[in-house]
Amino acid sequence: MRIGFLGLGTMGTPMALNMCRHFPLTVWNRSSSKYPPLIEAGAKIGSTPSQVAQNSDVIFTMLFDAAAIKDVLEDLRTSLTGKTVVNSSSVPEEFSHYLAKEVSRAGGRFVEMPVSGSKLPAEQGQLVGLLGGDAQVVEEIRPVLKPITCAAVHCGPIGYGLRTKYAVNLYVIALAVGLAESMNLARAQGIDPTVLGEVLNAGPMASAYSHNKITKITTEDWSSQAAVKDCYNSSKLICEAAEASGARSPLIQTCRSLYKEATEAGYGEEDMIAVIKALSRSSQSKNGEEYMVTVLPIPRTSGLDSDNPTATSQLGELYDGCDAAHSRDKREVLAAPPITTITALFVFLLDNQRQSPASVRSPRAPRLRPTSTRQAHYIHARPFWVQEEQSQCEQVSTGTPPWLVILHRVVLDVQVQVLARDLKRHVYAIDLRNHGESPHAHRHDYVAMADDVAGFISEHGLKEPTLIGHSMGAKTAMTLALDQPSLISDLVSVDNAPVDATLSRNFATYIRGMRHIEEAGATRQSEADKILESYESDIGIRQFLLGNLYRTTVASDDAKSEQKNVVKFRIPLDTLAKSLDNLGDFPFRNPDERRFEKPALFVRGTHSKYVADEVIPLIGRFFPRFSLVDIEAGHWVISEKPAEFLKAVIEFLTPKE
């Protein structure tokens, strides 16, 4: 029997090598760098996925996610008649049903077989195959599974292999995070990790898995057997499965957050146990001391007005040195010993939002007046303080080092913290008007948004900050740089250019899909995702859009109940729908009249259309000191390739010798 294999990553390469020792094998991978060991083992190389299928009877796919599989599916369709496709990639269950249907339409047969095990079991041919599909087809392919599995369990029809995989991975991921947290606690208490490792390895919970991960921690060997980014992807799928089935999943929710943090901090390619680095980063502080900043949202109905600096200043003084607590019925301040000699409280006055206080750790936070949301500028902002000595932090009042102002809050919190740490700068991450927690306004164009940002910079006394913006935020940053260049020191534009450009029709499609969700009265994110899937197939983009959802209560259509909980979008869909034409425009046309003579970095996704090669000369005329960095990604560069994005920005903003 002839075997085809698509995807030669951490798991795919050893699986394919084991196949090659027993069957004629043809392989394909996006990057040719993975081919040498397969060629040496006797495998043939297919120039396309379709060519692999033509030379195979059974085709295995071991690609990163559903989007990667969809990319190769179009090429495969014409070559699947009479073939069997076995998907071992981790994908959502609904995508597996979609894939089975598409393969069947193309004349082929489909089996899902996610695997339990990481790189070492894959190398040893000791994976556990979790099969879902027709029982007869499963039995027919069993002989070709022997080189890669120690057991191949038929879990049921399509979808059941993945359901089993989700349950297995929840257990494995929770074990890894539990071990990492245990080791981190030991180290924080001054216990040598090798001592704890010796204790654990001698106890009843010892296993080959724990031995391996303990060794990796104690030797700081982060070479990947199952990568952090894969665990993040897997934990998202598990959370979706749990929500869809109504199962409580508090552990995996926590694990997902930690793996998200680790991925965004640049550890995505390292072994899953490197999640300990995320735990260590969040618990470290200078000289072993920790300081607490409490962010306490206060509704306007409290009688406090954000436009009254005296009131907000007095409130800040009242709360200084105290801890804040949230009551079910009211917000109250409880007198308590300060966590250290300095406890800074920043009060955000939001529009009638009931939120619990959120606390973030920040060593030696500077004493500044409370920050308020000024309706005049339609901006809500969140500050992040650089972790350094108090004397250095106090330099913020002189503008040194410059602030970073990130437009549109598209850079996630952990990435902001990395920028603050590595560049030794304070950061404001802001929501532009009509987004996130910022106020809504009927006018929505780049001149208005740039004016909002200019007002924010002036109001907060920021001396020539750096602006970082993605997409709409990038055009806003460019508009401000060209209109008021003296306000900022430099800028980073992510995947947008200073040109009029018709927005991708996808944006209008997204708005229609999001309206559909609200009109349907979806009550859960999983329901919203199913609706949005008919408008956007890429699960990554859907998750990004659905990140704007919040839960609220509306009148119920059911006579038995007066109210029901639904999900809605924070952003005003009608306003954005009417503004789509404005968002494609750029307000300046003539680079001879407007020019930004300071440094500018343009980061573009090579698979995106927004910064085409032909517009680069125009960028150079508007921004003569620009530099360009290409990242292999689509439009959502920051979320697709967080480590590469952070590297480019940090290199650009790091002072040159």
TrEMBL record:
One of its GO terms (molecular function) is NADP binding. Residues 418-499 form the AB hydrolase-1 domain. Gene3D superfamilies: alpha/beta hydrolase, N-(1-d-carboxylethyl)-l-norvaline Dehydrogenase, domain 2, NAD(P)-binding Rossmann-like Domain. Residues 159-279 form the 3-hydroxyisobutyrate dehydrogenase-like NAD-binding domain. It holds the Pfam family NAD_binding_2. Keywords: Hydrolase. Transmembrane segments: none annotated. InterPro entries: 3-OH-isobutyrate_DH-rel_CS, 6-PGluconate_DH-like_C_sf, 6PGD_dom2, 6PGDH_NADP-bd, AB_hydrolase_1, AB_hydrolase_fold, HIBADH-like_NADP-bd, NAD(P)-bd_dom_sf. Residues 2-152 form the 6-phosphogluconate dehydrogenase NADP-binding domain. GO terms for cellular component: mitochondrion. It comes from the Eukaryota. Belongs to the AB hydrolase superfamily. This is AB hydrolase-1 domain-containing protein.
